[in-house]
Amino acid sequence: MLMPELATDQATGLRRLVAPRPVRVIAVTGGKGGVGKTNVSVNLAVAMAELGRQVMLLDADLGLANVDVVLGLHPASDLSHVMRGERELAEIVMEGPAGLRIVPGASGIREMAALTPAEHAGLIRAFSDLGGDLDALIVDTAAGISDTVISFTRAAHEVVVVVCDEPASLTDAYAIIKLLHRDHGHSRFRVLANMVQSTQEGHDLYNKLCRVTDRYLDVMLGFLGSVPHDEFLRKAVRSQRPVVQAYPRSRVAQSFRNLARKIDAWPLPEGANGQLQFFVERLIQYSTEFGGAGT
Ligand SMILES: Nc1ncnc2c1ncn2[C@@H]1O[C@H](COP(=O)(O)OP(=O)(O)O)[C@@H](O)[C@H]1O
Ligand SMILES: [Mg+2]
Question: What is the CB neighbour count within 10 angstroms for residue 161?
């Protein structure tokens, strides 16, 4: 007969084998355009992949080509083809640096609301199959607080709010935090200060945002860290490569690697919430409830 503790160990081991592994879904948002959301998403995703994690990056920005431009990819099809049943999700996923997987979202996201229940189920299944060996899904959102941005952000476990030292960036960050809190019950956010001239500037920006949220909202803001303003990032963008790979020794690349290690140490989401299927279900639920994920 098995010792009781041995039996427990085996049961835990078995559950781990059978249960899908938890996936961190991280939405990168911030309200304002041009604060660095796409570059933050791409470089954090590559840096996490370089740590040996299985990472997928979902380009949820409509209209403007984003992740594909920064990485020099030319997607032939996107999520809209999957939704119309013309492609399997696995067929549209592109391989990026360090084994990173990229889902070109593009116009597919706009069509989320028009799906039949069978199509919903198909999409959830497609994502669940794909998510089997994933550790993290990073979602790069568009500027503004459109329904699309909100639906992706509210479905994520972790919300990274990118800010930079411009009044419009702070007011937009505040607006999105307020909306997610008031209408969707999100109360925890991680602030990333981008394009800072010094680490002090990063802390100052975070403190400024905290002063306003502490006064008017019941939310918790954590400081993820800051990313310096660095010409190497612009050079990398021009050569369509992530700066963590194009200029790995630059200050900006080092800070992305530090932040990726920090994220990797966050506690994993637990239970059903921690599965990719949960994210897609929540995403679709919002799109239908609120009459569309269109902008
Ligand atoms: N850390 C940084 N250092 C220097 N320039 C930056 C940095 N982050 C962003 N930029 C500049 O800002 C531009 C816009 O960044 P992007 O990631 O596309 O912003 P968003 O997705 O928020 O619109 C980049 O092309 C780059 O020129
Ligand atoms: Mg962008």
Answer: 28
